[in-house]
Specification:
By secondary structure, this protein is α/β, with parallel strands linked by helices. The protein is built from three helices and three strands. It has a single domain, classed as 3-Layer(aba) Sandwich (Trna Endonuclease, Chain: A, domain 1). 12% of the residues are buried.
Length: 90
């Protein structure tokens, strides 16, 4: 399976979905060979509006995921607390 990743330095725009859909359709037709799974697309954006993403994805059959990225990781102590908290839930 192939994964196409589009890293956006700006906030999410509805046109990003159309662009990724175009890339996925091209890849399915021109690059995939028999036996390959359909490619998936991941769009990483500075900020996203979940409602806009939901409506922009309506009717799209390709597998596209939209998520927000962080420019900086939290400090070490915050990460340690979070990991401990997750471990304790298991």
């Amino acid at each position: 399976m192939f994964c196409l990743i589009d890293l956006k330095i700006e906030d999410f725009m509805h046109t990003d979905i159309g662009q990724m859909n175009l890339y996925l359709n091209y890849f399915k037709t021109e690059e995939n060979v028999q036996g390959d799974s359909e490619p998936i697309g991941i769009i990483l954006t500075k900020e996203n509006d979940e409602v806009m993403v939901e409506y922009a994805m309506g009717g799209i059959s390709n597998k596209i995921f939209v998520s927000k990225y962080q420019l900086y990781l939290p400090d070490k102590k915050t990460l340690q607390r979070k990991v401990k908290s997750l471990i304790n839930k298991v």
